[in-house]
Amino acid sequence: MNIFRLAGDVCHLVAIIILLLKIWRSRSCAGISGKSQVLFAIVFTTRYLDLFTVFISPYNTIMKVVFLALSYATVYLIYMRFRNTFNSENDSFRLEFLLVPVIGLSFLENYAFTPLEILWTFSIFLESVAIMPQLFMITKTGEAESITTHYLFFLGLYRALYIANWVWRYHTEGFFDQIAVVSGVVQTIFYIDFFYLYVTKVLRGRGKMTLP
Amino acid sequence: SMEPLRHDEL
Question: Which of A9, A60, A179 lies at the smallest CB-CB distance from B8?
Answer without folding.
Answer: A60
